[in-house]
Design a protein that fits this description.
By secondary structure, the chain is mostly helical. It is 83% helix and 0% strand. The chain has a single domain, classed as Up-down Bundle (Growth Hormone, Chain: A). The C terminus is likely disordered.
Length: 423
Amino acid sequence: MAASARYKWTLVWFLFCVGALNYGDRTAISAVFPLIRSELGMSDVELGAIGSVFLWAYALASPLCGTLADRFSRARIIVWSLTAWSLVTLATGFIASTGQLLFTRVLLGFSEAAYLPAAIALIADYHSSKTRATAIGLHTAGLTFGLVAGGAGAGYVGEHFGWRTGFYLLGGGGLALAALAYFLVRDAEPAAGEPAVVVERESVLVSLRKLVRVPSYLTVIGEAMIVAVGTWIFLNWLPLYFKETYDLSLAAAGFAGTFMLQGAATLGVVLGGMFSDKVAGHAPRRRMLILIVSYLISAPFLLPFLGQTGLITLNLAIFCFSFFGKVGATNETPLICDLLAPKLRSTAIGFMNAANCLAGGIGIMVAGFLKSSLGLGGVFGGISGIMLLAAAVGLLGYVFFLKRDLARRQQEAAPSAFATRSV
């Protein structure tokens, strides 16, 4: 029996909470950089390595995790991933050296990598193309909410109770949420209008060969990697920029470095998902157009970083950049779901996550090297060019590949859908 309409939205809101913890755990550490740097005697490059080793471990594990979620229970993968990363977060509070800290970040990358491919594919299983972008947008809003709460919360707790306390709280809370997830999260029957998800024990290489034969998917990965460079530079370095430039407290810097960026992102993914379903629910090709236009609009808003700009003006610029950027990025995973069969979605998202994290990790390290010469303001201003490049890659896919790839997917789905209706 098909899942009830009520449960499919209950699942989205529950995964909103799980996703918030996922991103809160991974980004809380940037809000307490000054405390960690002081205690462990770390350089700027070593601080950058905290974010980079996490992302590279995440990138290494994501393809395998994606393929597992296409072959085994997505619900159970979500539960075990949540349990594992919560244990690692708890252990982070007990580290005593830079090496130990970097090791826990590697473990966090490995354990968190399993969550997003399984969660997004599970949401797509429950939601047809008419509500899919809205549902994925709400889940993504949980991720961005977690960034704000993790940054501001870790900054406040670190300032008053020590930086380790925040990791004890996050880890313990995650274990409690995992216990609830065990009973609440369950695998789906196909959403309306979709054929049943057939589990096939094909190798990763076979799945990869199928993916690389879809040029539009490669285009989405390309533009997403480019955007990820700028996104992760912001996430890793913005709190420190506010601390050093405006002499804010840790809590205020953690809040300022996440709230405008992620508050706007939360609004952008929710409204962007709804707008995408409204405009492109029956014409998926339009999702790429929304992405391209949104990136073009977002690019100029980072130019104020290149001059002497007041805090209020800068925050407004960050808000506009993040809002329009996320309106565009929200179209990526729904577009992948439109392009690919259900049995390939987790694998596809896993490879995209791997590519994004690889690119983001490189961006964080490069920003650490450039900080002394260009300053973080100069690095952030350069992200305007990154957004223009991402829009150009998206336009390339829209003009040359997207129409053909969507038509191919419709032809593949038609016999299965007919067979499903005939039963």
